[in-house]
Amino acid sequence: MSRIHAITAICYLRSTLTASLRNRSAGARTLLCVLPFLFGTLTARAQSAAEEPFSTVITPDFGAVTWERLVAAESEPHNWLSYSGTHSSQRFSKLDAVNRYNVAQLEMKWAYQIPVIDRAETVPLVVDGIMFITEAPSNVVAVDARTGREYWRFDYQIPDDIRICCGRNNRGVALLGETLFMSTLDAHLVAIDARTGNLLWDVTVADYKAGYSKTAAPLIVKDKVITGIAGGEYGIRGFIDAYDAKTGELAWRTYAIPGEGEPGNDTWSGDSWKTGGAATWLTGSYDADLNLIYWGTGNPGPDWNGDVRLGDNLYSDSVLALNGDTGKIDWHFQFTPHDVHDYDSIQIPILADIAIDGRDRKAMLWANRNGFFYTLDRSTGEFLKGKAYATQTWAQGLDAAGRPVRVAGMAPSYEGTLVAPPIVGATNWYSPAFSQQTGLFYVTAFDGEQEFFKRDQDYEEGESFTGGGGRYLKPMDAFHSAIRAIDP
């Protein structure tokens, strides 16, 4: 397969790009542009996909993405077969045609205009020269990665009364065989024929009217589609599901908050666990050798008033290691017990086999929204190392078990309490990376602070249930953002 199939950069532009695009409507100025590797030269004439005449739409030609291909995805660096590229989520590419010496010679080859003005947080899949792109709110399109030509599109109709906290996002699809799997904002999971764009099945995961929604790309594990849930600001009870890829039948569900009589339920005062949040709104990772799925959980609810949910609030702000066949929790690690700052632990877990203190470890690397970086043993959940990687004022540090040692007086108050990091976190949903060449972990970091407030609030189904909020006392340009490299 030629390297012209390899996609090396994806960017989003919210402005006009060329004269040929200036006549598009204001609601259609989000552009997806790609820079493919080229034989012999790294430059090419910038060309809109619309400039080249379209032939009769044909079925996209690609090889079926078997489970075996997904497990060995690292051996196909010219493809991007899942949300994080591989099950280890390292986002490391072995491609080397573009480097620091010639990257300035790249020019745009084509542009595909996403016809919505919503946020663009998707990660396209690339399979044998075919690109699958999701668009807000819950649509997917197949295009030729060489030219930008559209093969087909699937538009999912969402109801007008959905409940969402943070934008009409869709972050991508999963692919198994010749079937795409996509989450929808009204908390459905759909299967789509990757060759035709036809709907194969549609299952209701949860009731959107109660505040449930879905934004994350699913994860394929064997013959199952693993998927989480969003809605942590609406008093939901988070969970992780597995569905049969062929039929859409629910195989298992693991709740992120233990029910009555289950271990960990006593970390919630009264019945607060029933509306405790712990949404699972981003994609996890998988270790095929250990047969463990690793999935992060979000903040407890209400977000900023912990008075109504005393205790550690398991398994909010945690990583869960689940048996890939049954969904049973093998181990857990809680990053922020009794979180009152909305420091969701939904970041992408990176799996890497590295030496730590002279001992080879199957490690999990995690840059948390709370401002601390963690190295865990992914076989057992043992805390190995931890340190702050961004400005934070809420904790003195981590103890020997990785539990934060809190600074007194940093909880949200009725008058307001200034704390770092802010609500957006030291990092957020944006994916980190690990280099097999340098052995370093790379993450986008934000050094900011915000005033946190709490307020009294009763739960009402389907209504926002946050118990407070926050405000910045300084303009955003007073803070510092960076890409940081961390030695795990």
Automatic annotation (TrEMBL):
This protein's record includes keyword Transferase: no
Cofactor annotation: Ca(2+); pyrroloquinoline quinone
This protein's record includes keyword Transcription: no
Pyrrolo-quinoline quinone repeat domain boundaries: 80-382
Binding site for Ca(2+): 233, 299, 342
One GO molecular-function entry: oxidoreductase activity, acting on CH-OH group of donors
Cystine bridges: 165-166
Textual note on the cofactor: Binds 1 Ca(2+) ion per subunit.
Active site residues according to the UniProt entry: 342
Keywords: Calcium, Disulfide bond, Metal-binding, Oxidoreductase, PQQ
Residues engaged in binding pyrroloquinoline quinone: 121, 171, 215, 428-429
InterPro entries linked to this entry: PQQ_b-propeller_rpt, PQQ_MeOH/EtOH_DH, PQQ_rpt_dom, Quinoprotein_ADH-like_sf
Family, per entry: Belongs to the bacterial PQQ dehydrogenase family.
Protein name per the record: Pyrrolo-quinoline quinone repeat domain-containing protein
